[in-house]
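Subject: sequence -> structure tokens, single chain

Hey, anyone have a minute? Need the predicted structure for the following. Not urgent.
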Amino acid sequence: MARVNSLTGSGLKAPHSIVRLLEILPGLITWLFLLSPIILSIYQPFAVAYFIIALDLYWLLKSFRMSAALIAGYRRLKVAMRGNWNIQLKHLEGASSSCSILKQDVAVLRARTPWYWFASRKGRKLHEELVRTEVEAEKLDSYLLQHKAVKPSDIYHVVVLATYNETLSTLRPSLQAVAQAHYDMKKLIFVLAYEERGGDEMKERVEQLQSEFKSSFGAFHLIRHPDGVVGEHKGKGANISHAMHELLSEFKAEFDPHNVLVTTLDADHRPDKDYFSHLTYAYITNPNGRYTSFQPIPMFFNNIWDAPAPMRILATGNSFWVIINSMRPQFLRNFAAHAQSLEALIDTDFWSIISPVEDGHQYWRTFFRYHGEHVVQPLFIPIYQDATLSKKYISTYKNQYLQLQRWAYGVSDIPYVIVANFKHPEIPLGKRLIQLWRLFEGHFSWATTPFILTFVAWMPLYFSPTFKNTVLAHQLPIIASQIMTTALIGLFITVWISILSLPPRPHRYTWRRNVAMVLQWLLLPVVSLGFGSIAALDAQTRLMLGKYLTFRVTEKAVREVKEVPRT
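Reply:
Had a minute. Here:
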């Protein structure tokens, strides 16, 4: 039987023994790090104690930094959602005249704004308007300086929605959200990519959706992904790649790939009404659009009021993590729904057909295809998604764990990136190393931090008889507790913004549900360990042992109840 490893089918060649060593390495380092405090607590308890204090201080500072990024990112999200992006696109359509008008406005505002603008409310408003107008004028100037400036009217969108066995109650709202977007639907091609293994029942569902929505878009395509294709792993990547190959064979001659943007969605993804106009604006004002992926903000809030408390914590945390990383784009990677130009997707032969985490892996495929020039640009506009919810609570917890385990299996990218780094010496060494470090550090922290912060401060007391009688021994838990208590400031900020971000409470719930939305955060330590660290450690251990994960569709249940208005 042919040997299988994390590089099989990726296009990269390396000896199987080398690849297996690289697969073992992340999990081995993680396990050694987690076990070392026990051993060091016996022989070097003071070293462990000082390490814990240093680590706690590091996470205190990091929590402050992340809280600041969350606040700034949330503000940018709200500003972007209030913006009229179609007006911005009209400015770009007639960029030359609009730029002249804006420059005239800048001159008038500059003359009206006193040098002591900060001393009065009117002066501050004039200064804010001046700055805003200057920024818009600079954007248009930059746009006009591009050698091949693309007009908004030149852009077409392709939306590829992948489905396997989801119900109409999950799929229909997603198609409705796309159809109701504030954009010219004649410029949008919708592709519903469904799996043959979904059976006749799935075929009937997608045909019903086609009959309902085919007139809502410029074109509507149903593309069936055949089952059992040699060389493919069952999963979203293979499905949507097959769909795009089929679609490309139909209209390749009709469109310039540089002018086509492709967005990939899951069955429960519902784009904000301004997503397509915002994406269009971001793409045509980016001089390096071909080398850029565009990452909107996933907001797992579709069914947040119905999900159990642990799932609500994870849904909120996952949403906020992308907001935080959007404020530091060098850490941002493709996640869930994302967009690229058709030109770039053709260059990478679309998405991976073997990786169970095709979204994150697409970043690395594009990064090395373009010799390190690829970046991810955040879009501060939401795509609403489901929190994990099944028909039974026990199934909900199981599916949530398996979903996070699959996301954490992105650690399988580490062997790929190491081998690719050797294959691409043209990329500066520093850039290759920092990218590898960010990938490794993210997965390493995911698996280890909650364990270390929760348990290690107590280990020297229990494993070292001589350490018990020292002053530091009795002060260590107190110091660690005080530092972590101070770090609760970051948690309070998270809770505050989570409440602000919630969709309206359904009528079937009373005010007590709002109270539960606050009290749920008391479960954060347990949730971080049970669904965070353990799932990540599980994924790394499976890769280390060669027990490779495959794609598993997360069940998406919808609570269907008749809303009765409260009196």
